[in-house]
Structures are given as C-alpha cells and as structure tokens.
Amino acid sequence: MAKVLILGEIRQGELRNVSFEAIAAAKQIADGDEVVGLLLGEKAVSLAKQMIYYGADRVLVSEHSDLKSYTSDAYTQVIMQVIEAEKPEGVVFGHTSMGKDLSPRITAKLKSGLVSDAVSLEVNGEEVVFTRPIYSGKAFEKKVIKDGLIFATIRPNNIPSLEKDESRTGDVASVNVDIKDLRTIIKDVVRKTTSGVDLSEAKIIVSGGRGVKSAEGFKVLQELADALGGAVGSSRGACDAGYSDYSLQIGQTGKVVTPDLYIACGISGAIQHIAGMSNSKVIVAINKDPEANIFSIADYGIVGDLFEVVPLLAEEFKSVTV
Ligand code: FAD
C-alpha cells in the first residue's frame, strides 16, 4: 500500500481526461491507501471536486497568480513543496507535454527513478510492474519498481478512468506555495488550433499527409473529423510543406496518439510517423499507392484518391450521426 500523488491538468478551463486516468493508475498503486490529487492554476478550486468523483481521496489546490499559465519553474517549485510536505510513496503524471517537461526535472531533484510513458500497470505484492512501448512502439518492455519512490507518467487514452461517482466526498484544501526567481513570465497564450478536440486525447483522428497537397485540402479532412466528432492530425510531410501546423504533427518528433480510430489520408507510413500512431486501436489507410507502407499496419485499407474517398465517408457518416 502506498500513498500516491497525482497531478491533474487543466486546459482551457477544463480537466483533461488524462487526470482521471492518472487517478485510476494511482488507485492501483495505492491499493487502498490514499490518492491525493494536485491541481494548479485557474479554476483549480472549482474543478477539484471532479477529481474526487473520479476516485481521488483528497485534492490540494492553488490558484496562485504565477500558476495561471504553465511554466516549468513555477510548477516544479510548487510540486517539490507538495512532495516534501506530503511525502507520497508514488507519483503519477500524464505523459503529456506538461508531464514530460516536469517529471524528469522533479525526479532529478528527488534523485529518484522514473518510468515514463506507461501504457498499463499491475501490482504484484510489493512490486509495481509498468508496461511501456520501446523502439518507436515496435515492442513493449516491463519495468519493475521494487522499492523507492514509484514515479511514472502514463500515456493518455490507455489506462481507463474509473466510473464517475458524484456521491464520493473528500477534502479540497489550498496549499501554501512559495514561488520565487521565475525565469519565465507568460504574457499571453495564443492558440493556433481552433478545434475543440484535443489531439492527444481524441478518440477519433483523421490525419493528413503530403498527399493532401494543400492547406485547403485539409478542409476535406476537417469535415470528416467533424462528422465523426474527432480531431485532425497530420504527418510531418504535411507540416513541412506548410499544409498543416506543427502542433498537429503525429510521430516520433510530434505527438504520440492512441485513438480508437485513426484514419490516415495520403500518408506513406514512414517509420517516424508510425511511431506516433501504431498503437491506435483501429487504423484505416487511404492512399492511391497500393504499395504504400501505411497499408502494412492498417486494419482496413482503401486504395484510392483521398479527394474522392474522404468526402464520401464524410457524407455517409453525417447521415448516420444523429
Ligand atoms: P509522403 O511520404 O510524401 O507520402 C505522401 C503519400 O500520399 C504517398 O504515399 C502518396 O501515395 C499519397 N498520395 C498522394 N496523393 C494522394 C491522393 N490524392 N490520395 C491518396 N493518397 C495520395 N514524420 C512524421 O509524420 N512524424 C514525425 O514525427 C516525424 N519525425 C521525423 C524525425 C526524423 C528524425 C526524421 C528524419 C523524419 C521524421 N519524419 C516524421 C518524416 C518522415 O520520415 C516522412 O518524411 C514523413 O512522415 C512523410 O510524410 P507523408 O507520409 O505525409 O509524405
């Protein structure tokens, strides 16, 4: 049994799903011990209850003005202070941009190990066994933590969150934070993407490559994504060509995604792209080249011109989606 701290993440005024998934992972590690949530930034107080509903026993919050926008400096200082005060035996973050930035900083300060990008875990007696992808998703390894601090980041969309239970109760308390010597001050946040669906947590992704041929071509993909309630992603080929924004890039040097459905349109299937999407549950590839490598990992392949196939799919899904 171990007391576990989890970091919740707020984006655009809402809790990201990975916060609930981290609670589910923490519950397994805690094995009956306390799961403490930490929520920092604007709206932390009003969102804290959600974490209790999804399984946290207690939530610590701070809406300090220096935490309004994420900075490595401020968040690291506060999390270190909370860890020192709470002395958890386990810590779980999402394997998100924030979690990937914070976890090595904090584990280095704590001189602890880190299991990053875990996709599942099991507890065998005193040992916690994490499974994580290696070699760009081609294989999985197991990491066993036998003693010391159990610190892990979990990949979004892999560990199912618990059922929401609005009858659960728990303490929500403000933490006193001491933030100093900030090297970064965020003046304003300018969002480039307008879609409401967060790519790394999307259940359905319609992704485009160089075969989409223009930024205008991506509108066709957006229509299909809208019909399915999904998000649009892209290959680096499409980003490099200026058709799509780098914030949408999926792959080794972009985002790693694991949606239920990934529709690759005009993407050849380079190893660096596959590294970011091969663990999607169902992969559909649309490519006019029957020899394209993307077909080797696709569950369903459509050989054809995406500008013919994608609008047909969008029409069809619009007619069945209520
Ligand atoms: P292409 O390889 O040019 O493929 C375009 C495809 O579109 C072709 O298969 C073609 O048959 C098809 N097509 C063309 N017209 C149509 C049509 N009308 N209808 C249907 N199909 C059509 N790439 C990533 O994606 N993500 C990464 O994170 C990433 N990181 C990298 C890191 C490094 C260090 C390096 C060296 C490379 C990285 N790359 C990454 C680049 C990668 O190697 C490929 O160059 C890139 O993925 C190719 O993008 P693409 O499939 O869109 O383009």
Automatic annotation (TrEMBL):
Domain Electron transfer flavoprotein alpha/beta-subunit N-terminal positions: 4-194
Superkingdom of this protein's organism: Bacteria
InterPro entries associated with the record: DHS-like_NAD/FAD-binding_dom, ETF_a/b_N, ETF_a/FixB, ETF_alpha_N, ETF_asu_C, ETF_asu_C_CS, Rossmann-like_a/b/a_fold
Needed co-factor(s): FAD
Matches recorded under SUPFAM superfamilies: Adenine nucleotide alpha hydrolases-like, DHS-like NAD/FAD-binding domain
One Pfam family it belongs to: ETF_alpha
GO molecular function: electron transfer activity; flavin adenine dinucleotide binding
Cofactor note as given: Binds 1 FAD per dimer.
Residues reported to bind FAD: 210, 235-236, 249-253, 266-273, 287
Keywords per UniProt: Electron transport, FAD, Flavoprotein, Transport
Keyword field contains Electron transport: yes
UniProt record, GO biological process: fatty acid beta-oxidation using acyl-CoA dehydrogenase
Family: Belongs to the ETF alpha-subunit/FixB family.
Name of the protein in its database record: Electron transfer flavoprotein subunit alpha/FixB family protein
Organism: Niallia endozanthoxylica
